[in-house]
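Tokens as discussed.
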């Protein structure tokens, strides 16, 4: 199950993301918004991120205007490693090296094809472990030490 969350800037971009999920045969849970009315990105960020952190969803994709605000909000949820990406190489490496469990993208930053390439990369790559596990553990330790 893939968690989706977005603000009002991202309705069309979410449709493109869903096209890729359908193409890959992946189910999703949509935490909104589905309205064009202005909304606050921390709300869908939190709902989707908590679904991932609690294991109800394996991975998550967030979208706001830049991808920044919604990614920052998601990263405040314990256990979330949300990579803010605007090209496919970083999306691929965020899975391989950082074990990112969410990405955030900017509806006002990238277009349809780049977004689809990012989503495909993120959803089809896997974590390499090894030395990267040690580094991810160090990230988790920062979280623990700061009582996030
Ligand atoms: C909304 O205008 C915009 O601020 C929001 O979508 C996002 O880009 C924030 O980081």
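Sequence:
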């Amino acid at each position: 199950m893939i968690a989706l969350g977005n603000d009002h800037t991202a309705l069309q971009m979410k449709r493109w993301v869903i096209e890729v999920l359908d193409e890959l045969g992946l189910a999703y849970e949509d935490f909104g918004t589905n309205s064009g009315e202005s909304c606050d990105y921390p709300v869908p960020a939190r709902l989707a991120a908590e679904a991932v952190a609690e294991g109800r969803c394996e991975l998550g994709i967030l979208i706001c205007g830049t991808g920044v605000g919604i990614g920052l909000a998601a990263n405040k949820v314990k256990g979330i490693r949300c990579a803010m990406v605007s090209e496919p190489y970083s999306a691929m490496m965020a899975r391989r090296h950082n074990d990112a469990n969410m990405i955030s993208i900017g509806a006002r930053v990238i277009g349809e094809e780049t977004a689809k390439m990012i989503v495909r990369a993120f959803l089809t790559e896997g974590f390499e472990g090894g030395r990267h596990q040690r580094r991810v553990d160090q990230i988790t330790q920062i979280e623990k030490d700061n009582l996030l």
